[in-house]
Structures are given as C-alpha cells and as structure tokens.
Amino acid sequence: MFCEQTPDRKQLIFTALDPLKGRGRELARFDVDPTADYDWDLSPDASFIDIRKNSEPRLSMLSLTDQEPREFIVKGWSTLINLDWAADGKGLFTSGLVERGSVLLYVDLQGNAHPLWEQRGSLATWAIPSPDGRHLALSGWTTNTNFWMLENF
C-alpha cells in the first residue's frame, strides 16, 4: 500500500501496490487539512490505517475491513511525532516532545501512553518492531551546532 495526497491536498488516498503489476485499486480516502503534514502506518494484519496530523495527539484509525472508523487522544501528551504499529497490533509507538528532548511512547488503543525511553536533546525518537515483536529498532534524532564569533571581520 502507498499513500498520496490529492492535488488540492484535501485528502490522503491509500492505494494497493502489487510488486509485479504496480498500482492497484484504491483502498481508502481520508480528509485532511491541506496545510498540514501527516504520519500514517498500516496495522500488522492490514485491517486498519492509523493516521495522525503531525504534532497533534489525536489518532484516527481508518478501517480497511468495513469496521467503523475510530479516533482517540493520547492521554497526557500534546505534541507527538512519528507513528509505527506494534507487531501484535495492540498499540503503537510514537514520540512525545518534552522540554528536555523527546520520549519514546508505547500507546495502547485506548490512548494510554507508556514512556519507554527518553533521549535528552532529541528532536524525535522512533521505534520499529521486528515482525515477531521481540525486538525494537530504535532511533533518536539530535543536532549539534557550533557558534563562532569573529571580531573585526
């Protein structure tokens, strides 16, 4: 599956992708704010697409199996970045921003956030689970900056 925005940027279009035949049928559409960016991820069983407007705590779950769409707010967090399903499909990994950096969170499907790892000075953290759910690939994003002062230049 892949995602692209309509030319007016008002919808995300999710389309099946066949590795041999290319573009397949349209799977779903989701209305969006044309001025914003979004993260999304397909659930491990391919039944839901989780979508989040960047930097917001509201998660939308769009069903690909004719179930009702769902929404929930990640409790206790106002700014989130990144989005990856847990291997068992019972939660998601995301990154919450704090004053001193970012915190990797596991969020269950009721919106309860469980901090897993804080990286000081980080702009974002990621976690991508292995297919068996026994391992996580972790990433943290930081920047280093040097300032120089020149006199009599």
Considering the chains and any ligands shown, give keywords for the structure.
13 strands; 4-stranded antiparallel beta sheet; about 150 residues; globular; mainly beta; single chain; Neuraminidase
Describe what this molecule looks like in 3D.
With 153 residues, the protein is mainly β. The protein folds into two domains: 1-35; 36-153, Neuraminidase, CATH 2.120.10. 0% of the residues lie in helices and 56% in strands. It has strands spanning 2-5, 11-18, 22-31, 38-42, 48-53, 58-63, 70-73, 80-85, 91-98, 101-108, 113-120, 124-129, 136-141. The radius of gyration is 18 Å and the shape is globular. The chain starts with a strand and ends in a 12-residue tail after the last strand.
